[in-house]
Request: fold
Amino acid sequence: MKTKVFLSDEGFGHIVRQRAVIAELLKIKPELDITLQTHQHFNFAKENIKATQFINRFNNIVWHKSANNSPDIEKMADYYSDYLKIASTYSEIESKENYDF
Reply:
């Protein structure tokens, strides 16, 4: 079974959590073919997660923070105001790949 896991580029918590999920999946089904996709912390993910393949590609989600690390609602609203246009190109690329899950 070919599986693809997308990791957020925001921080390291996603990597730590997905590492645990992937480890458990591999206990259940060791022959699982796992492809992991991330960009910002690609090398860290590659060194810390057991996957068959890795793709260094931006996952199309952006998080904007203010100086105190709280969400910057204004910047996020600007970025996502035309999200359907941005997402259509990204979806086109992803739809060409063949994964079961």
